[in-house]
Design brief:
The structure is a homodimer.
Chain A (H helix, E strand, L loop, with lengths): L1 E8 L3 H9 L2 E7 L6 H17 L4 E3 L3 H10 L2 E7 L11 H7 L2 E5 L22 H13 L2 E3 L5 H10 L5 E5 L13 H10 L2 E4 L3 H8 L3 H15 L4 E3 L3 E3 L3 H9 L33 H8 L4 H19 L6
Parallel strand pairs in A: 1-2, 1-10, 2-4, 3-4, 4-5, 5-6, 7-8, 8-9
């Protein structure tokens, strides 16, 4: 059993059958980057149709038990997530309603500062704003997991402190292992470890670097070194894999509607396009290599199980909540 | 036990305590007249807060059992409804999501023709439009009751025929008893009777007329004559009572954003303002007079029970559905 803490892009039937072949039973999917409330409802509607049309291979998970059940049935459980808080449109009351519609993971902000928090790409991280504190408390109550992957380190530390429940960094790496604005300081990783939070280690070359994007043993070496910082109960997988992504998708992801100019996101002017996948991760089916890769760098079976799914299941259990309808 | 098929306006704690004193255990509340999706979410959010803040006297009902339970607990069950389909914003996928958020009754259109159907106030009733047919089928599936109170007679007859489940006219009267554009033809009433639908008889003077707005016996006489047309299983109560309504509320209800001019809705240039309540219905507590009023015009206890709550409970049981969350 494996859970991927974050993927994005245009999923189709092929995505699910290949994730299944890759040993993945649960995956947090990205339902939006910049979309407001109505566009987010459209996205959720499209996701419901996609899952209904492929119910033999996929399902939507609202609880950890749904993921376990999907694993037993040989289906892939999609956990609905958003990489930005724009779906709330500044309205505290919308949090519980989106939770009722199945949304379980929301990132406080994406690449830009917003009304909740500062972003990893801003020259200055504002720290957690008033609405951010309100939304975290409401997400705690409504049964949603707070995600700080693209959030600045300062805001992330404040979110960890403000949240009554442990939080996640669903897809990032340790900045001390591969320096990048998107990666997290050791302070953040230690704070996650001390509070029951979890970081999903990414397999996106732009934030993983070429060495850790080599053979599977080298990527698992990065995981082992991340465990040294955050602890064995706080490290998991969050590949950041993008399905069927094309140039317009990258443009939307990076520029949204916020600039007439060019922004490279996690890429750079020198390497602006699609980053090549890690050597070990040419196709989704290659995810089957992870369990053995973890054993090869010295993890016990029990430890490898925590990394591949146990830590996410535990965190989801502490944060998700099935609401009345 | 009594169920009021439709009320509107600004409910507050006083509304619930007085409805309770009036013997009302369930009431369909109007969460919107012209509001789009986001404004409708705002309205639902405000309703949730209102109910949470008054949980000792009120609750939200998603099933008929919730209403029965509320009656036993001495609370008033609010059934969330909209008097227009604008909340869907032309999107079929939003129907099931609003159902999941607790919306149980939606009128196909309000005073103006829309993308679903023709209105009772248009010079020509367009009949049921393509999107209207789609929405009815989706409402059937998602567990929402179709309401045609302000819908034109032609569209209403087509809606009754198109719907796989019985429909409601939550608040109107028989046009043959008091002629008014808002009231329903005998054809519509008979069609309701033949298909398990229900009409909630209104106690709004503009569409009830002065005679049937006299003492309680006269209003119940109207109900008896409506039963003669539609049958004992298809007549109930839908007072159309407005709580804390002021001039700006009437302006929004009648003109919304669709005209720079003046529209009188169910009122008229000759009597444009707030209609005086029926003589028997000066205050909410007066609703206690209904059961005896019904007995006084010849209904048996069993028949009176159908009119005060049994018919609504039966129809809600056939149409409402608790959805997964």
């Amino acid at each position: 059993m494996m859970i991927d803490g974050l993927q994005c892009g245009h999923f189709d039937r092929d995505s699910f059958t290949r994730l299944k072949a890759g040993g993945v039973s649960g995956v947090v999917v990205t339902c939006g980057f910049w979309e407001g409330a109505l566009e987010s409802l459209d996205s959720l509607g499209a996701w419901r149709d996609l899952i209904r049309d492929n119910a033999d291979v996929a399902t939507i998970a609202r609880t950890p038990a749904d993921i376990t059940r999907a694993a037993q049935e040989g289906r892939v459980a999609a956990i609905l997530g958003f990489q930005n808080a724009n779906l709330f449109e500044g309205r505290i009351r919308l949090v519980e309603m989106f939770a009722e519609l199945g949304v379980r993971v929301v990132q406080l902000t994406y690449n830009n500062q917003n009304d909740l928090a500062g972003s990893c790409y801003e020259a200055e991280d504002s720290g957690l704003a008033r609405f951010g504190r309100e939304v975290i408390a409401e997400m705690n109550r409504a049964g949603m997991l707070v995600d700080c992957s693209h959030v600045g380190n300062r805001s992330t530390l404040q979110a960890i402190e403000a949240s009554g429940k442990p939080i996640a960094v669903t897809h990032a790496n340790a900045d001390s292992l591969f320096p990048h604005k998107r990666n997290k300081s050791d302070d953040v990783l230690r704070a996650l470890g001390q509070t029951g939070g979890v970081i999903g280690c990414a397999a996106y070359r732009n934030i993983t670097g070429d060495y850790y994007s080599g053979p599977i043993g080298q990527w698992c070496e990065m995981i082992a070194r991340t465990v040294d910082i955050a602890g064995i109960d706080s490290v998991a997988i969050g590949t950041d894999r993008a399905h069927n992504f094309t140039a317009p998708d990258y443009a939307w992801m990076r520029m949204g509607r916020w600039t007439r100019g060019v922004d490279y996101g996690a890429a750079s002017a020198a390497r602006p396009g699609k980053a090549p996948p890690p050597d070990w991760f040419q196709k989704l089916e290659d995810l089957t290599a992870i369990p053995n890769g973890l054993r090869s760098v010295g993890f016990s079976q029990e430890e490898a199980d925590k990394i591949t799914h146990g830590n996410w299941l535990r965190l989801y259990g502490e944060t998700f909540r099935k609401t009345d309808s």
